[in-house]
Design goal:
With 258 residues, this protein is an alpha/beta fold. Helix content is 52%, strand content 12%. The chain is built from 10 helices and 7 strands. The protein has a 5-stranded parallel β-sheet with strand order 5-4-1-6-7, sandwiched between helices. Helix 2 packs antiparallel against helix 3 and helix 4 runs parallel beside helix 10. The model has no long low-confidence stretch (mean pLDDT 93).
Length: 258
C-alpha cells in the first residue's frame, strides 16, 4: 500500500494481461525455440509461441469478444421512459481519461467514462436525483478523474454534481469511499452507473461496502452483424476481449479476497 504499490500493480497487470502478455508469450517461445540447446525446451518454446499467437487471433475475433463480454452482462436495463427509480442518488463510476488533447488543452473524459457520464446525466435529468462522481488520481501529475467528469457533466451536459469522490483507484475503492460520502447524507440506496460488462463486479463491491444497489448498465456490447463479420479479426475486438478478460480476472481476484 505504499507509494510504489499502484505503479507496480499497473506494470504487473500490463505484463500479464492481453495483449502484452500474449506478445511476451510468443517472444519467449520463439527465443526458446531458436536459442535453446535442449530439445525439450525447444518444443516448449514452439508450443508457447503457437499458444500465444492462437490466443491473440482468437481474442481478435468479434464473435469471441462478444461472447466474453456478453457473459458478464446480466443486469436488467432501466426503462428509458422511467421518470422515477428506486434509488436515493446516482453514482457514476470513472474509467479512462484523455490527457491533454490538443483540441481542448486540458484533460477530458475518455470514451468509456464519457458514455457513463452521459447515461448518469440522462438518469439525473429524468429523475431529479443527486449525482456522485467517483474516480481518483490515475497518474500523479493529473487531477482526479472525477474532477474531469464533473467539468464535463456540469459544463457540457448541464447537470449539477452533488458529490465528488476523488480518493479511489480501483472499483473496490470506488465503493468504499463513495459509501463513506453517502453515509454522511443518510443515503443507502443508489443507482450505480457503469458499463454493462463492468456492473456485476461493481455491484458486488458496492453491496460489500454496505449500500443497496440498483444496477444502471449502459453501453452493452452488441453481437456481430453476421457470420462473416464475426470471424474477421479486428483490433477493436482484441480491445473488447481484453476488457472482458480484465473483468473475469478482477472477479476472480475479489473472490479470492484480493
Amino acid at each position: 500500500n505504499g507509494p510504489m504499490a499502484a505503479p507496480l500493480k499497473s506494470l504487473v497487470e500490463t505484463l500479464i494481461m492481453p495483449p502484452t502478455g500474449l506478445y511476451l508469450m510468443v517472444l519467449v517461445g520463439l527465443a526458446l525455440a531458436r536459442f535453446s540447446g535442449v530439445q525439450r525446451r525447444r518444443r516448449i518454446g514452439v508450443s508457447l509461441a503457437w499458444a500465444g499467437g492462437t490466443a491473440t487471433v482468437a481474442l481478435s475475433l468479434p464473435l469471441v469478444a462478444h461472447l466474453l463480454l456478453a457473459s458478464l452482462q446480466n443486469a436488467e436495463h432501466i426503462p428509458p421512459s422511467a421518470a422515477a427509480i428506486d434509488a436515493e442518488a446516482i453514482v457514476v463510476l470513472s474509467a479512462d481519461v484523455d490527457c491533454d488533447p490538443p483540441e481542448y488543452g486540458e484533460d477530458q473524459p475518455g470514451a468509456l467514462t464519457m458514455l457513463r457520464c452521459r447515461y448518469g446525466a440522462a438518469l439525473a435529468r429524468r429523475t431529479g436525483l443527486p449525482v456522485l462522481l467517483s474516480g481518483g488520481v490515475l497518474r500523479p501529475d493529473r487531477r482526479p478523474v472525477s474532477h474531469v467528469m464533473r467539468d464535463f457533466v456540469q459544463g457540457e451536459l448541464g447537470i449539477p454534481v452533488r458529490w465528488v469522490e476523488e480518493a479511489s483507484t480501483t472499483t473496490r475503492g470506488n465503493a468504499e469511499f463513495s459509501a463513506r460520502i453517502l453515509a454522511r447524507e443518510g443515503i443507502r440506496r443508489v443507482a450505480l452507473v457503469s458499463h454493462a460488462w463492468h456492473l456485476p463486479r461493481a455491484t458486488a463491491a458496492f453491496e460489500e461496502a454496505g449500500l443497496e444497489v440498483l444496477p444502471a448498465p449502459t453501453a452493452p456490447h452488441a453481437p456481430p452483424s453476421g457470420l462473416v463479420e464475426s470471424l474477421v479479426p479486428r483490433g477493436k475486438s482484441l480491445r473488447d476481449s481484453t476488457w472482458a478478460v480484465h473483468e473475469w480476472v478482477g472477479r476472480l481476484w475479489y473472490w479470492l479476497g484480493g
